[in-house]
Design a protein that fits this description.
By secondary structure, this protein is of the alpha+beta class. It has 12 helices and 22 strands. It has a 4-stranded mixed beta sheet with strand order 15-16-22-19. Pfam families: DnaJ (PF00226), DnaJ_C (PF01556), DnaJ_CXXCXGXG (PF00684).
């Protein structure tokens, strides 16, 4: 755009015109239009004529060096021009001031748009360059709650999702990463300061320490160990001890976890039975060694006539905090209290059980072995395992079955049985009836005429009952083995030769 520059008629100075004008147009999208339409920049009436541009001149492409703000829908166009290199008496200073004002207004508009534009994930375009802001994780969507969710809704959502995706429960790929994301989302939305930063600046605001004052600073983007957060909700030995300065709170959780009733461990018993006992089932008496409640202290582990007291070392927290000074600063280490073993209480142990509250005893248990079990089968007997601590429920008893092999009958495919019978070659030619051993006893089996060596005959419904459905039984397969003598008498030889002649 050409610039028209003139001097006052009364000026006696020679006019020299050297003009360089640079116009940069930047487009911003905003809902607010600044400044109002009709604003123009004019020198005061007392100043000498200098470079300027009125609203009409700028619209028509005439004039130069001035600034003009034009409104068009929701688009604001800011034009700034560099100062002219022309210098006149009484005029050069005004041109420089005017350029500074236009530049300042353009900068103000740009700052307002950046502040009002907010959110991440949208693309802002300007003429000559493109800026793309990537979207962070939507914590509300991750927890499945609305942006107006209260503390109770957040806790309820976290409990459900944390249980679903905990690595000890969910073995699918990516479950642990999902569990960590859920924990981070809850930690941010449950904290008023972090939530305010996240709502205004998104996830990037937490990582970059935005917010100013008490909101920003180091540590805003750091998250608590997700497993410590989980333990603080559902209990456990870890509690919230992993949260630095809140170690005392974790100690109380840990002590409470050790003192509350816990379920006893499961017990294993190995049982060996005969082949036929596995096929049709049987009754067995088992002598099981297991932990039972101490009858002297009734399972409390405390000596009769005494009561537990609060530990003087840890103050009942079950943990002690040791501070270590290093060149990098002070570090706190949380360890289990050695005086009370993490229970938060000290007491005189029961002399019979040694303070455990349980003693090992033998108990005779009757067990019904169902029909159709096989080696490797496992039977579960509920509540017959070890007794729980502090009055907790007992575990279960698991009986592992081993079946002795039978010399004649071989089991395959779980419910089928195979066996072998041997007959002379003459019986194979003429046919016969033989006695075959089965799981039901000895049964007659008819061998057809001309049976071939190695042939297999089927005896239906003579196999093993199906485990869990004894009305369904397998089959027994009989393999025929034909014997041929090494030596025969003269009479037998003559008969065979006669038979051979007839075959020809």
């Amino acid at each position: 755009m050409a610039s028209s520059i003139f001097a006052s008629p009364s000026a006696s100075l020679q006019r020299t015109t050297t003009t360089t004008t640079t116009t940069t147009t930047t487009t911003f999208r905003t809902k607010k239009i600044l400044p109002p339409q009709g604003h123009s920049f004019r020198p005061s009436s007392s100043s000498s004529p200098c470079a300027c541009a009125t609203r009409n001149n700028a619209k028509n492409g005439r004039g130069g060096g001035g600034g003009y703000i034009r409104r068009s829908g929701s688009v604001v166009t800011a034009a700034t021009a560099s100062a002219s290199s022309s210098s006149f008496a009484n005029g050069g200073g005004r041109s420089t001031d005017f350029t500074k004002k236009a530049t300042a207004i353009t900068s103000t508009i740009r700052n307002n748009i950046n502040k009002k534009g907010g959110g991440g994930g949208k693309k802002k375009q300007s003429r000559g360059k493109t800026l793309i802001v990537t979207a962070g994780t939507d914590y509300y969507e991750l927890l499945g709650v609305s942006r107006s969710a209260d503390t109770k809704e957040l806790k309820r959502a976290y409990r459900q999702l944390a249980r679903k995706y905990h690595p000890d429960v969910n073995k699918e790929p990516g479950a642990e990463d999902k569990f960590k994301e859920i924990s981070n989302a809850y930690e941010v939305l449950s904290d008023d300061q972090k939530k305010a930063i996240y709502d205004q600046y998104g996830e990037a605001g937490l990582k970059n320490g935005m917010g100013g004052g008490g909101y920003g600073g180091a540590g805003m983007g750091d998250f608590t160990n997700p497993f410590d957060l989980f333990e603080s909700f559902f209990g456990g030995s870890a509690g919230m001890g992993g949260m630095g300065g809140m170690g005392g709170m974790g100690g109380r959780s840990s002590a409470q976890a050790r003192n509350r009733p816990t379920q006893g461990d499961d017990e294993r018993f190995d049982l060996e039975i005969d082949f036929l006992e596995a096929v049709f089932g049987c009754e067995k008496e088992l002598d099981v060694m297991r932990l039972e409640d101490c009858d002297t202290c009734s399972g409390s582990g405390v000596k009769a006539g005494t009561r537990p007291s609060t530990c003087g070392t840890c103050g009942g927290q079950g943990q002690v905090i040791a501070t270590v000074r290093t060149p990098l600063g002070n570090f706190q280490q949380v360890t289990t209290c050695q005086a009370c073993g993490g229970n938060g209480q000290t007491s005189t142990p029961c002399p019979k059980c040694g303070g455990d509250g349980r003693v090992r005893k033998s108990k005779r248990i009757s067990l019904r072995v169902p029909a159709g079990v096989d080696s490797g089968s496992r039977l579960r007997v509920r509540s017959e395992g070890n007794a729980g601590r502090k009055g907790g429920p007992p575990g279960d008893l698991y009986v592992f079955i081993a079946v002795r092999e039978d010399p004649d009958l071989k089991r395959f495919e779980s419910i089928n049985i195979s066996t072998t019978v041997t007959i002379p070659y003459t019986k194979a030619i003429l046919g016969t009836t033989v006695k075959v051993r089965t799981v039901d006893g000895t049964v007659d089996l008819k061998i057809p005429t001309g049976v071939q060596p190695g042939a297999t005959l089927l005896m239906a419904k003579r196999g093993v009952p199906k485990l869990g459905n004894p009305n369904v039984r397998g089959d027994q397969y009989v393999k025929v083995k034909v014997t041929i003598p090494n030596k025969i008498s003269n009479e037998e030889k003559a008969l065979v030769e006669e038979l051979d002649k007839n075959q020809k």
